[in-house]
Amino acid sequence: MFFSSWMNDVLAGFLLSGGTGLMGWVFLGRKWFTRLRSIVLLTFSAGVFWEGITPLYLTHSVRDPWDLAAYISGGILYWSLFFLLFVYNEHKDLRFSEDRLS
C-alpha cells in the first residue's frame, strides 16, 4: 500500500529538496540548503500548496493529509542522506582522532 499511495510523495519531497540544494550549489557556488529547518519548511510549504490549493482548481485532485507527511518525510530523508554522505564524512577524521580518546 505504501508504494502505491505515498512513495511518489516521498520521492517528491526528496527530489524537491535535492533539486533546490543543487540549484543553490550551481548558481550560488555553495552548499546553502543543508539545514533541516529549511528543508522541512520547503517541503511543508509545497505540500500545503499541493494538498490545499491544488484541489481547488483540479477536479481530479483530492486532499490527503498523509501526503503532507510523506513530502516532509522525503525532505528529512534527503537531509539524512546528505548529512551522512557529505557532512559526516568531511569531519570523520576529527570525530575519531586519537587525540580525543586520550
Helix content: over 70%
Beta-sheet strand percentage?
under 5%
Morphology call: elongated
- The overall number of domains is 1
How many individual helices? 6
Structural class of the secondary elements?
Answer: mainly alpha
Quick one: biggest sheet? none
Order of helices and strands: HHHHHH
Count of beta strands: 0
Radius of gyration, taken over Cα atoms and rounded to an integer in Å: 17 Å
Q: Note poorly predicted spans.
A: 94-102
Mean pLDDT: 81
Give the terminus-to-terminus CA distance: 51 Å
Topology of this protein?
Elements: H1 2-5, H2 7-28, H3 36-57, H4 65-90, H5 92-95, H6 98-101
Task: Write a brief structural summary.
Keywords: Membrane, Transmembrane, Transmembrane helix. It contains 6 helices and no strands.
Structure, described:
By secondary structure, the chain is mainly α. The chain has one domain. It is built from six helices and no strands. The chain has helices at residues 2-5, 7-28, 36-57, 65-90, 92-95, 98-101. The longest helix is centred in the C-terminal third of the chain and has 26 residues, at 65-90.
Keywords:
single chain, 102 residues, mainly alpha, 6 helices, membrane, transmembrane
